[in-house]
Structure formats: C-alpha cells, structure tokens
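ok so I'm stuck.
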Amino acid sequence: MRAVAFDLFGGELDLRELPDPSPAPHGAVIRVEATGLCRSDWHGWQGHDPDIRSLPHVPGHEFAGVVEAVGPDVRGWLPGARVTVPFVCACGTCAACAAGEQQVCERQTQPGFSHWGSFAEFVAVDHADVNLVAVPEDMTYATAASLGCRFATAFRAVAQVGEVRPGEWVAVHGCGGVGLSAVMIASAAGARVVAVDVSAEALHLAERMGATHFVDGSAGDAAAQVRELTRGGAHVSLDALGSPQTCAASVDSLRRRGRHVQVGLLPGEATPVPMGRVIGHELRLLGSHGMAAHDYPPMMEMIRAGILHPEQLVTRTIGLGDAGKALASIGSVPGVTMIAPHVPL
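replied:
not stuck anymore, here's the structure
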C-alpha cells in the first residue's frame, strides 16, 4: 500500500510503499477513503507520544472508509460496510469498558500511535465489534472522518464533560479543528460563545460556526478580555489548542465555580496553572479524551437533523502525496484539512 511514514521523530515525512495490514482475529482492515490532519499527529511525529515505540511509523488517527477484511472472531461486520472509528479503540472487556467508559479503556489502542495509522490506503483496527461505527449512506467520507477525533472529542467535551447549558458563556481557546467544532456544538446547545485565537482568519471561521464574541489572543491578556466580555468570566472554558499559555488563559477566563475542560494535548513541559484562582473560585478542572463508539448516536442524529454541520469545518482536501508537507506546517491553514488517499489530487 501507499503510505506516509517517518523514520526519525521530527524527520522527513515521505510517501512510500509499505506492506498491507492484516486484520487481527478480533479486528478489521479499513480501506481509507478520507483521513483528517490533526495536531495530535504532529505531536506523535515530534516524539511527544510514548505509544509510538518503533520506527518507521505511519501517522493518522481520524478516518472513514470501507471494511476491506475482518478477522475470524468479528461477528457484527462484513467487508463492504461504510464505517468510521473513534480515535481510542477500546478492548471491550476491562473495568473501564465494563462501565461504559471506553474512551479511557485500560488497554486501548490508537491507530497512528500504538500502531500504523491512516495516512495510508489501508489501516488496521482492533476489536472491530466494539469500535466500528456505521456511516450513513448520505454522509460523505470526509464528514465521517472529521468526527473521529476532533468533532467527537469536542462533542463530548462540551455536552457531557463541560455540561454546557443554554445561556451560559463558553470560551474556546484555540480555533483549530477541535476549537471550531466546540464553537459549533456549544452554539447549538444555546450557549454564548467567545472565540479566542491569534489568527483573524480562524476567528472569522469561528464566527461562521456560531461564535458571537471574539478575542485576539495576541493583543494583550486574553483571559482578562474574556472576563470583561462575559462580565465576570465564562461558565465553561476549553483549551482546544494545548499549550501552557492557552491552558492557563482558559482557567483564568472562568468566573466563580466555572468549569475548565482540557482538550488539547499538552507537551511535556511544565504547565503553570493558576491554582490560587482554582481554590479561591472553586473551579473545576476537567479532562476530556475522545468519545466511545456507543456514544455516537446522539451526535449522529443531530447531524442528520441539520443541527450540526461538521462538513463546514473542512476547508481543503489534499492527496496522500501532500500529507507530509501539510503535517509539517499544521496550523498554517485554518479549519480541517482532509486527505483522500485514493483520489489523485
């Protein structure tokens, strides 16, 4: 198969021929029709993820496609099915999975991290009966692929972890794919959304997704600007980028008893959190890590009903040959970049 791979962390990302994957007894192989370019892939390429233990490595973890083959133990899926997959592939049997919390599975695998990912023509998925999600015939592969990491992660972060309610103020720090998804979902929930970013183009996209107030993160104290706009601070604030600066600003943006949700991955460096404010204002600090396959139906129904429009987040589509260059320059193009491995572009 054709795939994008690297031999050194931070090294060249090139298109090459690699062996096709085979399904595990409980797994499946998916023919990738669309796969998103995500900052988490950049972190993996840079060596920030301990799950990448051997090189060469193929990145990519949010994808949709067609079941190519299944292992002998798979009961619910046949070749030809249209599917997508959460970026956390659960085992289905550990204590967390038994409690319905597959997004924090104790034995999770992640394509693009624990094994080769979806910047390729084919990708292997473990425990297919637990992790595959059916894609409706009227949903494009690009839309389905955009759900697997950023949109589903944002959906759970806003609706379930952050518990956003109508009329609340929500601040979203970082308007990349996750942030724009969070803006759209919070707006659909009836919240008043403040978008924070250093890019005017990203803030313009946030307005299209439903944000009503905007903060230029490069123009002074972003948290102070959010507190002023919201007359005391946001009820919920999300760090959708993942940096020490955006994390601290998100916490500082909150009003008393507010909820901070950390969504963006943070590098290994120390992250200064204003703990005095956390204590004095009784703030809640929450992590959000994807969404289990069984939690997809409410999100899918909102998309079907036209309440959510994840397809609006996709701002460009590229071929597999351009994926390496695009990953190296991630963040330079607002919105979601989609890769189509089987389409010459």
